[in-house]
UniProtKB/TrEMBL annotation:
Lineage: Bacteria, Pseudomonadati, Pseudomonadota, Gammaproteobacteria, Pseudomonadales
Native organism: Marinobacter persicus
InterPro entries with a match to the protein in the record: N_methyl_site, Pilin-like
Protein name: MSHA pilin protein MshA
Transmembrane segments: 12-32
This protein's UniProt keywords: Membrane, Methylation, Transmembrane, Transmembrane helix
SUPFAM superfamilies: Pili subunits
Length: 161
């Protein structure tokens, strides 16, 4: 009789496969929280970008107003921006800055109603423009004839969940 020879099988055992799966599961559990809340970070980045645009537009419009003799409105990129106290209006001649031909700070900063919710409050004293995006927001407060506006940078009003 021939002696039985042990035949070597090549491959992984069930225990080895289970251990690899367990290790991958543990690594995934540690990595998942780092990537889970990217939506909130994106919202905050978008509103911070809009806040920077409003701050820059306020400074540019004020500088153009000063260079133009400190009277009247200014023209930025072919669009007339209504000025109050040397700074852009919160809203403009329309009741909501969401309309494309608005001539206040939303137009100066090129904020789009497709990207942000723009809420103009003409009843406030002085009038305000609230720019929001999915819970994150800031407020631009219009200047009057004697004071400078409360710009987004000075209010630090980024309210994100």
């Amino acid at each position: 009789m021939k002696a039985m020879t042990a035949r070597k099988e090549k491959g992984f055992t069930l225990i080895e496969l289970v251990m690899v799966i367990v290790i991958l599961g543990i690594l995934a559990a540690f990595a998942l929280p780092r990537f889970a809340d990217l939506g909130g970070d994106a919202e905050q980045a978008a509103i911070s970008g809009a806040q920077g645009a409003v701050k820059s537009a306020t400074g540019i419009a004020h500088a153009a107003w000063l260079a133009g003799g400190s009277t009247g409105n200014v023209t930025l990129e072919g669009q007339t921006i209504n000025m109050v106290g040397g700074y852009p209006q919160a809203g403009g001649t329309l009741t909501t800055p969401a309309v494309a031909n608005n001539n206040g700070i939303a137009a100066a900063a090129q904020l789009s109603a497709a990207d942000f919710t723009l809420a103009y409050d003409s009843a406030a004293t002085p009038p305000t423009l609230t720019v929001s995006n999915d819970g994150c927001s800031f407020v631009y407060t219009e200047a009057d004839t004697t004071t400078t506006p409360v710009t987004p940078a000075s209010t630090a009003a980024v309210n994100c969940p």
